[in-house]
Amino acid sequence: MIGSDFHEVVEKFQSALDEFFRGNPEPAKAVMSHRDDVTLANPFGPIARGWAQVDKAMELAAMNYRDGAATEFESASENVGSELAYTLWVERFRAKVGQGEDAVEGALRRTTVFRREDGEWKVIHTHADPITTARRAESVIPS
Questions:
Q1: pLDDT one-digit tens code per residue, 66-125
Q2: 24-78: per-residue pLDDT in tens?
Q3: N or C: the chain end with fewer CB closer than 10 Å?
Q4: φ, ψ at 96 (rounded to 5°)
Q5: How many Å apart are CA 114 and CA 86, to the nearest integer?
Q6: What is the SS3 assignment for 50?
C-alpha cells in the first residue's frame, strides 16, 4: 500500500530530524537518497547537490544544534504518487543553537520531495528555512 509505507518514512524522517536537533545527522542521512541527483537547501549554506555535498552539508548543519528536539510538525500539504511524493510543513523545535548556551524555540518551513528507490521511499530534496510568517517585499533585498 503506497500511502502507508510513505507515512512510515515520513515518521522516520521526522524522528531523524528530532535527532538532528541534538546534533546527530546520522538518522536523517539514512533516509536521504545517496544518488547524484539528491539536493539539500538549508539556512546554513548554499544548495548542496549530489550525495558528497549533501552529506557534508548535513554534518555542518547538525553542528549548529545541540541538546534539542523537534516539538511539532504542522502539516500544510502533501501529495503522494506511485513514484514521487512531497510534504510541506512547519517544523518547530527547541534547542541550543550556534554558540548559545540557552535553549531557544524556533521554526522552519520545510518542503521535502521523496522518490521510490529500490522499493523504498527516500528523500531526494529537502529545503528548510526560517520564513514561517508573511514578510514585507523589501525583506528579500540583501542589507
A1: 999 999 999 999 999 999 999 999 999 999 999 999 999 999 999 999 999 999 999 999
A2: 999 999 999 999 999 999 999 999 999 999 999 999 999 999 999 999 999 999 9
A3: C
A4: -85, 130
A5: 6
A6: helix
Residue identified by cell 535553549 is: 103
**Would you say 47 and 40 are in contact if contact means Cβ atoms under 8 Å apart?**
yes
- Which domain covers residue 90, as residue numbers? 2-131
- Is the residue at 140 inside a domain? no
Q: Residue 20, Cβ neighbours under 10 Å: how many?
A: 27
User: Do 35 and 51 form a contact (C-beta atoms < 8 A)?
Assistant: yes
* pTM of the predicted model over 0.90: yes
Sheet holding 65-80, edge to edge: 48-49, 39-41, 120-129, 104-117, 84-97, 65-80
What CATH number should be reported for the domain holding residue 109? 3.10.450.50
Which sign, positive or negative, has the C-alpha torsion 114, 133, 24, 56? positive
> Of 112, 107, 111, 113, which Cα lies nearest the Cα of 132?
107
29 falls within a domain: yes
